[in-house]
Amino acid sequence: MNRRGFLKLSGAAGAAAAGCRRAAAELPESAQEFTGVLVDTTRCIGCRSCEVACSLEHGNFVPNPENDDALESVRDTSETQWTVVNRHRTSKGDVYVKKQCMHCWQPACAAACLTNAMYKTRQGPVIWRSDKCMGCRFCMVSCPFDIPKFEYDSWNPRLQKCTLCFERLQEGRKPACVEACPTDALMFGPKRQLMEIARIRIYNHPDDYVHQIYGEHEVGGTGWLYLAAVPFEELGFRTDLGTTPYPEYTRDFLYGVPLVLFGLPALLLGLRLMADGTGEGEAHDG
Amino acid sequence: MKLIPALVLSLLLASFLSARDSVPVIEIDPPDSVAWETALGEVVFPHAFHVDDLGVDCDSCHHETTATRLAMPHPGYFDDFWIDCAACHGHAASSGSPKACSSCHPSTPGNVADETSSSKVVIHRSCWECHEVGQGPDASRSCQTCHPAGAEEIEPAIQASHQDRSNP
Amino acid sequence: MAEGRVMAEVRRLGPFLAAEMRPKGPVLTPFNLISIPIILLGLGILVVRFTKGLGSVTNLSQESPWGLWIGFDVITGVAFAGGAYVITFAVYVMRLEKYKPIVRATVLNGLLAYVFYAGALTLDLGRPWNIINPIIGNDFGYNSVLFLVSWHFMLYMFAELIEFSPAVAEWLGAKRARRILSGMTVGAVIFGITLSTLHQSGLGALYLMAKPKIHPLWYTEFIPILFLVSSIFAGLSMIILEGTISHRVFSAQVDEKRHAGFEDMLFGLGKGAAIAMFVYYFFHALVFVHDHRWRLIEGFWGAWYLLEIIGLVLVPCFLFAYGVRNRRIGIVRTAAILALLGILMNRLNISVITFNWYSPHHYYPTWQEIVVTLMVIFSEIWVFRWIVLRMPVLRAAHELPSRGTLGTSRREPVPG
User: Fold this and answer.
1) C243 inside domain
2) Looking at residue A214, what DSSP letter applies?
3) How far apart are CA C336 and CA C330, in angstroms?
4) C227 versus B38: which is more confidently predicted?
5) Domains of chain A, with CATH numbers?
6) What is the pLDDT of residues C33-50, one digit of tens each?
7) Chain A residues touching residue C193 (CB < 8 angstroms)
8) E-state strands within chain B
9) C158 — phi, psi (to 5°)?
10) pLDDT tens-digit readout, B128-140
11) Closest chain C residue to the Cα of A78, Cα to Cα
12) Of C139, C178, C210, which has the smallest distance from its Cβ to A141's Cβ?
């Protein structure tokens, strides 16, 4: 190789290296792709380090996985724990499944929120903004996964749910749970890449997985994707939620609003004029 | 065919230029212990204990990496495919002495799809070949074996949580 | 010069208002004896609620975020208050003068209902001080049905206030103000009907996204339309019920002319209710057929559904028709009560009873929730009574006993 070729290559390599480094768990300013997490339940050993890491990161209730009996029953997230790992007894043995906010692509909670306190960020995570919330709990009514949890015992209650460690993402770090997982049961990245990994995994190990990625189409697509070796119904997932994004259920109604707002007064005025048969006009109103 | 060595050279340069992980040359004398900074505190791996006292073979953990060179009819595929085939099928510096895990298994994978799993995962899996981890609470308890510092660190937080209120 | 006029007005109004503040009837009525302790108890409960959080006085939970206060006070109460927009439509748009005598009372009821139910809603909020956020723009949640509903509530209260304000002006003897406000009535009415149409159906639209959580016998994409139509006959039935009660309780207030025509009005309202209920039933039948709901008619929920649709929609519908046809006012009143029960059942079913119906935890209200709800209702009745006994609501302005103290002897035209 001549000198020019060498210099070209080293330049390219340097650029590639620099590019590699930037792509490592960092979110460029202009990032438009939604990020998400792939959960491979076949890899999860139920150590619950993710629960501990999440609570440590956000000042929530830190469980004691070594000594508590939390896995004896199927739990839900709560106002003191943003994520839980549940053990499901299935046809193929015990399967551990992490539960948290799904960070839907078109979240029902964000559409429901009249103050935009529940907010879908450009990077993908759905966060709750304290300064706007008035605690109406309409997000709780609307979420198909029943995720937002309310602090009923506080005079200044907050809505508690997973934020995909949005602040950590801003700093270029990964979510705490993903960082803590020893088996890469959790992988963080752009959803597109996660989908490809998931598909390749199923393709390469067709007998080890159910041929479905939960979250690909459910409720119009979610940020958290799941792979499993058993049907998802056995793992506590709802499979009757449909593929329509939930905000679409209210779209037709909201579209009708301008129509009524401007059409109905005209209609009413017209009716009144038609009913004014005696020609007495406005004489006896009020 | 100039492309393959060029590619190898550029990959070497890339790994050299990016400050993430370099290819260390391992001396013949294995280190006494290896310390890693992890998300759960510092882990000190008693290397000499495993090699000398337990008589564990080098290959058991530093698995065979000198796979044969691939005769790829379409070498351009190396550029497009995110899986780093050259990690095993192309490194020139394989002289038989064990490499550090991080030479192929990065701590922060450049690409989330990098199927040459992250060092965190492969080290765990390697250890778990012998150290039973189990599932559920057994798995939780086994973390302490290697992460004593981390376990100590979070103990106060757990105590505080359980004193304040119990999880509903 | 202007100052002199203002001072004269103040001198006139001062003693007038002072006199009006005094009780206008016996203080120890049965209603007072029951309502005062409940109101005071409710206020005490509210102190606990605001210092210890909603969980301390309610049975709300993560599975049941909305309970009695939303399900009854707001979702049902607003339907009951639908009489205002229906009656103003009849009188000011369709110019059916026959119902004019009842407009003021109905509009007053509607105004008070919205004010008190918006108040009840505020009590249910976790952070009521942030209720100004969607108003001032922190932030405008355009995609939210609740944003629309809350804004419409607010604007509708203004519209009703304007509709009712001529009565207040007459009470204060402010003739010029009365003229101006009367001129705004038609505009306020049209605005009010538009807003009502949107927020009555909007209350139903709130549940559109709760599709997987509401029992399939009650969930349909047409919930908004069903809520709108049911609010029509809910309002009419409420006018019949409240009108009947007011007529008896405040019979001294009502003038002779009104007494005579009262039953006639009720029959007219009953006719409207019959038709609205039939349309509602027909919509339900359409949805039933379209969604192949036969397979769902089984077990408790099937029976519960049939009770609501047949027993509390179809039956009162026929009773209304029968009662009007045969001039049997008792049957019309019974129909009204059954219809109101049907609305209550339907609204509670959707918002509370079949919400998360498969969950092992079933929500039921605590006694504190019930007491606070009663407190809201009783407070509203107190205000209604206070206004009716003083302002020209059930009778013309010139017939008010307070007229003498205002020092005017000129007869004013009968406001209707």
Assistant:
1) yes
2) B
3) 10
4) C227
5) 31-248 (3.30.70.20)
6) 999 999 999 999 999 999
7) 264, 268
8) 34-38, 41-45
9) -60, -45
10) 888 888 898 999 8
11) C62
12) C210
> Is A239's Cβ below 8 Å from some Cβ in C?
no
Q: Cα separation of B43 and C84, whole Å?
A: 73
Please judge whether A183 and B121 are an interchain contact, meaning their C-beta atoms are less than 8 angstroms apart. Answer: yes
Angle between helices C367-388 and C100-124 (to 10 degrees): 150
Residues from chain B that touch A24, judged by Cβ atoms under 8 A, are 20, 108-110
Whether A111 and C209 lie within 8 Å, measured CB to CB? yes
A14 and B113 in contact by Cβ < 8 A?
no
Give partners of B (≥3 CB pairs < 8 A): A
C411 occurs within a structural domain: no
B113 and A1: CB-CB below 8 Å?
Answer: no
Q: Alpha helices of C291-407 — where are they, by DSSP H? A: 299-306, 315-325, 329-348, 367-388, 403-406
A79, A128, A239, A268, best to mutate vs chain C, most C CBs in 10 Å:
A268
pTM (two decimals): 0.85
Q: Which residue has the higher pLDDT, B155 or A148?
A: A148
Kindly state the average pLDDT of the residues A81-95.
95
Kindly report the backbone phi and psi dihedral angles of residue A89, in degrees, each rounded to the nearest multiple of 5, phi listed first: -85, 115
Binary contact (A246, C89; C-beta < 8 A) = no
Cis peptide before C139 (omega within 30 of 0): yes
Q: A134-138, B13-17, B120-124, C214-218: which range is least confident on average?
A: B13-17
Confidence of residue B155 (pLDDT cuts 50, 70, 90): confident
Cα(C144)–Cα(A253) distance, rounded to whole angstroms?
Answer: 11
Give the long-range contacts of residues A255-259, CB within 8 A, separation 24 or more: A257/C148, A257/C198
What's the domain range around C208? 68-396
> What is the token pair recorded at B50?
């495993």
Closest CA to A191 of A19, A32, A70, A68: A32
Q: Is C332 helix (H, G, I), strand (E, B) or coil?
A: helix
CB A241 within 8 A of CB A121: no
Burial C58-83 (b: 16+ CB within 10 A, else e): bbbbbbbbbbbbbbbbbbbbbbbbbb
Environment class of B80 (CB within 10 Å of its CB; exposed 0-12, middle 13-18, buried 19+):
exposed
Q: How many helices (H) and strands (E) does chain A have?
A: 8, 9
- Within an 8 Å CB–CB cutoff, is residue C92 touching chain A? yes
Enumerate the β-bridge partners of residue A225.
A38
Structural domain includes residue C51: no
Could you tell me the CATH number of the domain that includes residue C361? Answer: 1.20.1630.10
Summarize the confidence of residues A15-26 as an average pLDDT: 47
Q: Which residue of C has its CA nearest to A146?
A: C63
Q: Which of B59, B133, C111, C274 is nearest to A45 (CA)?
A: B133
Within 8 A of C355 by CB-CB distance, chain A residues are: 141
**CA–CA separation, C207 and C189 (whole Å):** 28
Q: Do B112 and A13 touch (CB under 8 A)?
A: no
CA dihedral C44→C48→C54→C56, nearest 10 degrees, is: -110
Contacts of A272 in chain C (CB under 8 A): 92-95, 186, 190
Q: Give the pair of three-digit tokens for residue A218.
A: 């459910």
- Domain total of chain C: 1
**Cβ atoms C205, C262 nearer than 8 A:** no
Ranges under pLDDT 50 in chain C: 404-416
Least confident span in A13-22, A166-175, C310-319, C335-344: A13-22
Residues A133-150 have a mean pLDDT of 97
